[in-house]
What does this fold into?
Amino acid sequence: MNQIGDLVGVAWSGLKARKIRTLLIMLGPIIGVAAMVSAVGLTESAKGALQAQLSQLGTNLVIAQAGGTFGSQNPTFPSNAVQRVENVSTVTGASATSNLSGVISIPIQGASGYYQAFPVPVRAADDELPSVLQVPLLDGRWLSTADTRLHLRSVVLGEGIAKQYGYLPGETRTIRLNNSNFGVVGVLGAVALDPELDNAAFVTQWAAKHVLGTNGRPNQLYIRAVPGSTQATANAIPTAISLGGTNQVSTQIPTDILQAAAQANKTLQQVALLAGLLALTVGGIGIANVMSISVIQRSAEIGIRRAVGHSRSKIGAQFLLESLFVGILGGIIGAILGVAVVYGVSAFAGWVVVIAYREIPIWMGLALLVSVSAGLYPSIKAARLEPLETLRLG
Amino acid sequence: MSTQPFDTPPYGVPRTAPPGVLRTDGEPLLELENVSRVYGEEIEVYALRDVSLRILPGEFMSIVGPSGSGKSTMLGLLGVLDLPTSGTIRVAGQDVSTLDDPTRSKLRGNSIGFVFQQFHLIPHLTALGNVETALLYRDIAPRDRRERAYHALDQLGLSARADHRPVQMSGGEQQRVALARAIVTDPLMILADEPTGALDSANAAHVLDIFRSLESAERAVVMVTHDPTVAGTARRKVSMRDGRIVADEQRVEATT
Ligand SMILES: Nc1ncnc2c1ncn2[C@@H]1O[C@H](COP(=O)(O)OP(=O)(O)O)[C@@H](O)[C@H]1O
Ligand SMILES: [Mg+2]
It folds into this structure.
């Protein structure tokens, strides 16, 4: 037992005597472990933020777009598309909107030139849109059946357009759509799943048809599905809408893009892991190199130790233990550094820190393995040195 | 003779063991029989040629000879740091060529103390650490080890230098630290290779005084030297030339 203690003391004093050299060869395991810990930690933390966002948005929204027959300019759905879609058993809610092309929206009289050049998209929407999107109104109210019944010219602004128009909450504001005045009744909150809606102005389907003179038929449907059957629902929708007719329907699950982003980070994680492994390997070669040189530089010490009775195996063990310490210490420092990086970046990016602490011993073990393997050859070399040749007796 | 010759007499014998056992038997501590040491493979260099020598307990022996005559080679063989190309070296009656490295190392550690011309201290260790090196891997508690090492330094008047590193000490002090390292294990044989060669005359005289004080009935001291006055103080003088022993003289009149 004391002998192991002696060995630890000897190896430790050897490392301590050459602090810079020790730190240099420790860089390999430090960088390797830090890279692997932070690679996994950062991608998991980023994914954690994405997943939190996903669960907040709900992954069960399907957007259906009218594709039209080939060559047709403004493809639309049949006007009863919402009822058709709601016949699909996994659909829990649906809302129809129409892109009204050719409608010019002007917030103030004087700036008409600019808004004619950069028209705000105007959409006709039904009553259900906010509830299907699960987006609250920032101000006022949504379009209602009363607007249709009373033939009111009401408009709801998207969040982005409200900002652009300088609309103040509660303000009485009239904007011009083509040549008609519309009163702003509310502002829709930001729609993370379809940011296009943030820059749109919404009117009732009645107004689209009778005031703005469009056909008012929907060309875009927002559909909520029973959680877990989003993809199946998306697959069923084209047939449900066209009912064997000629309507072309394309569907899209917007959260798939976010999930793909989380997936893409998996690749990033693997690249970073590979980089960490590379750092570890290069570090291992560095350890082997520096230790080999060190054995030559310390050959007199080796000879002295042999002369005072240290056996070959003790000399070998001494050097192997030095590389073991380099691996352990480098691994610990690297792990601390990696965790610090994850905390730092997450604080900066506003992520919730996710660290797989159970994986860290694996990376540290790997660093240890590399360090000890790297120290093996120099240690054998040290053990094999002929003491007389290193001492060159007087 | 026990199967573990170095834990039992004559090697590794504590100095409190009944004295004279070795001497009455006339049993040598170490015996070289027709030993040759050849270096090189294609071009053979005979560093030592057919040498026979017995070292008895209590002997104070000097080895003299011109440079390249094989003195250092002989010392390495006496200290079991090296093995002969031919011939046999017997320690306590046992052929050292048949011993494995751990046993030979243990033999060195327990029974042999080396002193070199260039002191050969480990540069990153303090004086105390250097002396302690000789007591490692022996199941001695660190506290006892430190105490023994400190005691050895103190004996040689170096207690104030215990925490100094080699570079912080004079040559004479370094050689005394090396001596403390050699005697801290209380060895049966002290082998010195020109221990005063790198010292000025005052320090050389001091170191020689220490060597003389190391004489005892059980212990042999073997010293390679260039200095004829140093050689003259030894009771036995072995002269070498071209790898051979050319004279082995015993000084009869004992001066004190
Ligand atoms: N490692 C070695 N390889 C080749 N020749 C050596 C080696 N060591 C010593 N010799 C040769 O052996 C001879 C004796 O050397 P050495 O024992 O050092 O002599 P001394 O100590 O008396 O000066 C010399 O000729 C020397 O060149
Ligand atoms: Mg010599």
Remarks:
- The interface with chain B takes residues 1-3, 5-7, 9-10, 13-14, 16-18, 300-301, 303-314, 386-388, 391-394 of chain A (CB under 8 Å).
- Chain A has a mean pLDDT of 87.
